[in-house]
């Protein structure tokens, strides 16, 4: 039986979040991420067989801007590193990254989850996320490095795989990001869809979970269309 943690995150003033649950599969790909030389190819293939295409690999620095994707559901898999904190569901309210990470420069609410190697997150369109405090620490002055082919969603599976599997995995906290085939992701921040949350909520549900496929243990069983009305009612929208 697969371990899964679920979080229902209602809208905030600035973030649409989603009727669908945020899904966290602790250590689901732990075995697949044991060999640095084969990680990217193994994880890429696992997602591809379920209709999700990897479009980026990121090595994380101390923090980043809280953001969400308005037109695509996202899967993030931790492929390297000891761990990091990921804050879901709230916007930064300060442009000072230090204040929005260690201080009080973010909205109330949301949830902070500790992520480790092998973990998989299925993040519904609209759910804000901010990865910070990665382990091991990077050398002073180094931060986020993002590897993504230009117009990645338009590439063939073979071309995307060739480019991403060339990225070296060397022990820092790193994740791979995948989206349902054909989906294009954007980078939206708090307030970008104020008054238009419904546009984000209507992103179609994928046919398969990125790792569990058609299993009822994955999003097929955990994302129910009837949940949408309940979330909208609670938000008084």
From TrEMBL:
<protein>
    <submittedName>
        <fullName>Uncharacterized protein</fullName>
    </submittedName>
</protein>
<dbReference type="InterPro" id="IPR011051">
    <property type="entry name" value="RmlC_Cupin_sf"/>
</dbReference>
<dbReference type="InterPro" id="IPR047121">
    <property type="entry name" value="YjiB-like"/>
</dbReference>
<dbReference type="InterPro" id="IPR014710">
    <property type="entry name" value="RmlC-like_jellyroll"/>
</dbReference>
């Amino acid at each position: 039986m697969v371990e899964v943690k679920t979080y229902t995150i209602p809208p905030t003033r600035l973030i649409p979040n989603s009727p669908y649950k945020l899904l966290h599969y602790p250590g689901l790909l732990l075995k697949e991420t044991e060999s640095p030389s084969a990680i990217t190819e193994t994880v890429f293939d696992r997602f591809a067989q379920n209709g999700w295409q990897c479009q980026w690999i990121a090595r994380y620095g101390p923090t980043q801007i809280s953001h969400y994707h308005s037109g695509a559901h996202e899967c993030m898999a931790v492929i390297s590193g000891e761990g990091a904190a990921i804050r879901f569901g709230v916007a930064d309210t300060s442009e000072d990254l230090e204040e929005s990470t260690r201080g009080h420069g973010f909205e109330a609410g949301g949830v902070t989850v500790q992520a480790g190697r092998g973990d998989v997150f299925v993040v519904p369109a609209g759910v804000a996320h901010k990865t910070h405090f990665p382990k091991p620490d990077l050398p002073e002055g180094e931060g986020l490095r993002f590897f993504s082919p230009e117009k990645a969603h338009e590439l063939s599976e073979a071309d995307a795989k060739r480019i991403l599997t060339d990225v070296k995995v060397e022990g820092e906290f790193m994740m791979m990001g995948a989206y349902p085939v054909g989906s294009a992701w954007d980078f939206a921040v708090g307030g970008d869809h104020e008054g238009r949350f419904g546009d984000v909520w209507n992103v179609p549900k994928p046919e398969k979970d990125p790792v569990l496929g058609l299993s009822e243990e994955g999003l097929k069983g955990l994302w129910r269309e009837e949940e949408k009305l309940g979330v909208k009612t609670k938000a008084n929208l």
